[in-house]
Write a structure and sequence with these properties.
single chain; mainly alpha; 71% helix; globular
Length: 318
């Protein structure tokens, strides 16, 4: 998850209430369009970050993106009277904002100065594995054989990806582990966000966390000012693009999809993001991940799917 961006899953605006079909039984094409828009925008975020990484420092890019996203999301939040957090909810929001929005963006942006977009998108997909691991440690969830197998397979995939970059120089290996750090902070954000969504609407949770992430990145305000002074219009456009399209717009279209389909099945489509990101990066940046990345990425995705088998196999409460 995300996320909101760059391969991660944002919270739904509404509880899913019906399958993605019209009353007459035909599939609702609007849901398909919204899903396609979401996946392409998320995938494009990895490519945009990679493109900007050559000229824009990670801190400046993080601050610029989150600042634009906060402004864009404020239009969604304040179209009606917002619901504000109370008591310990603020602490959960701080954890979510600092981890998922602040550190996540800083780590991912720095990572993509060292590794390609497709590889970064594949590694971020281990986020659900880390969520499951943290849930067993802090929430007392049971460690099943499927969950254990999924973790072993998934992390073996990451090790293979790192091995594929080991011959490219230490900087590339550092990029792999920075992306793992991004996946860890995503997982922490998901766990912090989960109880909040039972008490607050999704847009408010996301907007407040995004604002907190913006505050975390303020130490790089000077770098952002320097970038704005010398950057061409194209660079500024791509920074604005990251804040508006993969964050604000993709969040809204994803919520639309979730409100009209089964959340578990719909979420599986996010595994297409790394492959779309790889295709876009190949077309626009002429870069392709190392061969071992596809092997390791495939194992990472299989690992995540195994953990979902674990959850699906649990007996229904009586």
């Amino acid at each position: 998850m995300t996320t909101l961006s760059d391969g991660t899953t944002p919270p739904p605006l509404e509880t899913p209430v019906e399958p993605a079909r019209r009353s007459g039984g035909s599939f609702d094409w609007r849901v398909l369009v919204a899903m396609a828009v979401t996946l392409v925008l998320w995938a494009s975020a990895f490519v945009a970050i990679r493109h900007l990484g050559k000229d824009v420092p990670a801190g400046a890019l993080s601050l610029g993106r989150l600042l634009v996203a906060s402004i864009a999301l404020s239009f969604l939040v304040f179209r009606r009277r917002p619901t504000w957090p109370k008591g310990r909810d603020w602490w959960l929001l701080v954890l979510c904002g600092v981890g998922w929005f602040g550190i996540y963006n800083l780590a991912l942006n720095e990572a993509e100065r060292r590794i390609d977009a497709g590889t970064a998108a594949l590694i971020v997909q281990i986020g659900p594995l880390i969520v499951a691991l943290l849930a067993t440690v802090f929430l007392g969830e049971r460690m099943t054989k499927w969950l254990l197998a999924g973790m072993v397979v998934g992390f073996a995939g990451v090790a293979i990806i790192a091995r594929g970059f080991s011959g490219e120089g230490s900087g590339d290996t550092v990029g792999v582990w920075l992306t793992v750090l991004a996946a860890v902070t995503y997982a922490i954000g998901v766990l912090a966000q989960k109880p909040l969504l039972g008490r607050m609407p999704g847009p408010e949770v996301t907007w407040i966390a995004c604002v907190i992430g913006t505050v975390v990145c303020l130490p790089w305000a000077g770098d952002l000012v320097d970038v704005v002074k010398v950057a061409d219009a194209g660079t500024l456009w791509w920074i604005a693009y990251l804040g508006i399209f993969p964050t604000a717009i993709a969040f809204t279209t994803w919520a639309y999809v979730l409100s009209r389909g089964d959340a578990g099945k719909v979420t599986l489509t996010t595994f297409l993001v790394p492959f779309i990101a790889t295709l876009i990066a190949w077309a626009l940046l002429s870069e392709v991940p190392p061969a071992l990345t596809f092997v390791g990425g495939g194992l990472a995705i299989v690992g995540v799917l195994l953990t979902r088998v674990s959850r699906a196999a649990r007996p229904a409460p009586r």
